[in-house]
Amino acid sequence: APSSLPPYFIKGSIIQLADGELKRVEDLRTEDFIQSAEISSELKIDSSTVERIEGSQTSANFAVVQFSVGEHRSQVSVEVLLEYPFFVFGQGWSSCCPDRTTQLLELPCSKLSVGDVCISLTLKNLK
Amino acid sequence: VPVFPWHSLVPFLEPSQSG
To answer: Which single residue of A8, A43, A121, A122 has CA 20 to 30 Å from B15?
Structure first.
């Protein structure tokens, strides 16, 4: 089955950080996201802990990942393709099925597990 | 060659939660 993942996850894709620096997607590090969010006027990084990973009811190609998001520990579930990569703090790209991710995108990838802390975005508080 | 912004790569979670 063809992947419908966005093109920027394909190995070699050029990503622009908030300070203008260009990096390949496979070379991104935790610090790149943190520093970009610090520069951003609107976005801030949240820590989203994986609480549960289940197969989707609707399609075998999808998984439902439940996160505990931010300091308020809001419960958020997202349905994603098994090969969809999340960025885990201090570890890098991780997906429910890293073999598929590597096969389809050539993106080096680890196995996403319960307890992993992923980088997510939220709006900066306007106060 | 297309260039993608860094914030496309990580999910936006916790919609409209504040305070």
So the answer is: A8
Average pLDDT, chain B: 82
In sequence order, the 6+-apart residues with CB closer than 8 A to the CB of A95 are: A82, A83, A84, A85, A86, A101, A109, A111, A112
A74: closest CA of chain B, how far (Å): 7
d(CA A31, CA A25): 13
Determine, for residues A9 and B9 on separate chains, whether the beta-carbon distance falls below 8 Å. Answer: yes
| pLDDT, tens digit (0-9, with 9 covering 90-100), for A93-125 | 999 999 999 999 999 999 999 999 999 999 987
Neighbouring-strand partners of residue A93: A87
